[in-house]
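Weekly modeling sync, notes
Attendees: S.R. (lead), two postdocs, one rotation student

Agenda item 3: backlog of single-chain predictions. S.R. asked that every request posted to the team notebook include the full sequence so nobody has to chase files. The rotation student volunteered to paste the first one in as an example of the format we agreed on. Action items at the bottom.

Example entry:
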Amino acid sequence: MKKQPKTIAFICVENARRSQMAQGFAESLGKGKVEAYSAGSRPSSQIDPLVIEVMKEKGIELSSRHPKGLNDLPPVEMDYLVTMGCEETCPAVLAKKIIEWQIPDPKGKLIDEVRRIRDALEAKVKVLLEEVDS
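Predicted structure, as returned to the notebook:
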């Protein structure tokens, strides 16, 4: 019998940078083991163009995506909720396990700093996927 994929929601403020990158990595690296979502407590109007650019460097295409709010998440209890500075609104999402990642917001940063944040997110997603798979 095939295992149901674990659900992961990545939440930040604008859903324009960190949570979008984390979702992209989880989908790419999770290979069907996870269903990844992302949202923001106060969604922006578009994904940061630098985020789209640095994710393309990793072979992950985000240009067709758009920021989503917490109400856009499926109305189910997530297996994992990963928050990244979304203030008091994140715990409003039901989850079996809540994890807070201290990742700086790349908003307004130069591309090299956005790349460093992207790489930190990739490393954290890899560790999370190992936990999900265990």
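Discussion: group reviewed the output briefly. Helices lie at 18-30, 49-56, 111-133.
Action items: rotation student to repeat for the remaining queue; S.R. to check formatting next week.
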